[in-house]
Write a structure and sequence with these properties.
The protein contains 17 helices and 11 strands. By secondary structure, it is of the alpha/beta class. It is globular, with a radius of gyration of 20 Å.
Length: 394
């Protein structure tokens, strides 16, 4: 049976012009999966291309001006164009068929409301927006349980863990072994990081990703976020999540069980596998990625992360331990700091400094927040504080 003959669900892609979104579109292209709907931020030209290529009947743009532009571009089609966050959530709520999977690959905190909208609509969620779980993991997972939905992780590491967990039960988990590439500056000293440029930070050794997540990989913030994600997704304690630096990026993560057996998932580093598995779970389908050649890989190495030189991983662990809206504060401060670094307004070490100071200023108050409104309030406050902290470092 070839890929086009296999049964694929229909797909709604949120964040279709980003790195994961584009790879999801490629999976649909290879497999013949139907695209129900799309949303993106501002790139009307690219969404037009996607709509025409896949015959998409409805799409939404977060930016109102981009939506107006897209309506003009698609005036000769029957495609409806919605706008703003309300438009995105309206599109999500529409009935696109019982087999629909919604892939949320929106970048940043902006992905949280769509995540809640997907689950509230009783739809299957394939989640590539890590901030949904970082900012509101307890709320998201509680809603998923109440709606009888399984959150299908699309991060490479969490997809790997999700697959490995099919080998045992929840009570049999001893620890989760979460792998990290180490980023482009593995082995650097604090002194060497002082002169890092944006161009060097964006040169990831293994993965092709968007700018923001690539910088997060370089600071190890991304791995800190993934620790928080794992705690919520898999119902484990933070101390059960161990991070291993694995430079080859072949083993994407593993689970150690109570009998000390370790089950790992290995493949070439390609996000299309994660997208495909979320669409076909619990079955597997013909490959959309190249075969792994272990002879070519040669060897697999593992090391402890350097949390002194890269303190954001440890800060993430402390944030999940504090709970409440503290992880949301961590994420918001990081978004501000990374954006400033990418625009050459902050040094590379300054990212960790801004995030750390912002979290410490708000930790006590934020720890008590347990509602969506409270999380959004602390998200906004953290952005204001981070801007103030950043201003003091210029």
């Amino acid at each position: 049976m070839n890929k086009t003959e296999e049964s694929y669900p229909s797909v709604t892609v949120l964040g279709s012009t980003g790195s994961v979104g584009e790879q999801a579109m490629d999976v649909a292209r290879q497999t013949g999966a139907k695209i129900n709907a799309l949303c993106a931020g501002r790139n009307a030209r690219r969404v037009e291309e996607q709509v025409r290529a896949f015959g998409v009947p409805v799409c939404a743009m977060a930016d109102e001006a981009a939506a107006a532009d897209l309506r003009v571009r698609l005036a000769d089609t029957g495609t409806r164009v919605l706008s703003g966050m309300d438009g995105i959530c309206e599109m999500i709520a529409e009935d696109h068929g019982a087999d629909e999977v919604v892939l949320n690959s929106i970048i940043g905190e902006a992905g949280l409301r769509p995540t809640l909208a997907v689950l509230s609509a009783g739809k299957k969620l394939a989640l590539a927006n890590k901030e949904s779980l970082v900012c509101a993991g307890e709320i998201v997972m509680d809603l998923a349980r109440r709606m009888g939905q399984t959150v299908l992780p699309v991060d490479s590491e969490h997809c790997a863990i999700f697959q490995c967990l099919r080998s045992g039960t929840q009570k049999e988990i001893k620890k989760i072994l979460l792998t990290a590439s180490g980023g482009p500056f593995y082995g650097y000293s604090q002194e060497q990081l002082a002169d890092i440029t944006v161009e060097r930070a964006l040169a990831h050794p293994t993965w092709k990703m968007g700018a923001k997540i690539t910088v997060d990989s370089a600071t190890l913030m991304n791995k800190g976020f993934e620790v928080i994600e794992a705690v919520h997704l898999f119902g484990v304690a933070p101390e059960q999540v161990e991070v291993l630096v694995h430079r080859e990026s072949i083993m994407h993560s593993a689970v150690e069980y109570t009998d000390n057996s370790v089950i790992a998932q290995l493949s070439v580093p390609d996000m299309r596998l994660c997208v495909q598995y979320a669409l076909t779970h619990p079955r597997r389908a013909a490959a959309v990625i190249p075969e792994l050649d272990l002879f070519a890989a040669g060897k697999l190495t593992f090391a402890h992360p350097d949390t002194e030189t890269f303190p954001l991983l440890a800060l993430a662990r402390s944030a999940i331990a504090s709970g409440g809206a503290v992880p949301a504060v961590l994420n918001a401060a990081n978004e501000v700091a990374v954006a400033s670094f990418l625009s050459h307004g902050l040094s590379f070490p300054g990212i960790a400094e801004v995030v750390g100071e912002t979290v410490e200023r708000l930790r006590g108050a934020a720890a008590g927040a347990r509602t969506v409104d409270g999380i959004f309030a602390f998200d906004a406050e953290a952005r204001t504080v981070a801007e103030q902290v950043k201003g003091g470092k210029l």
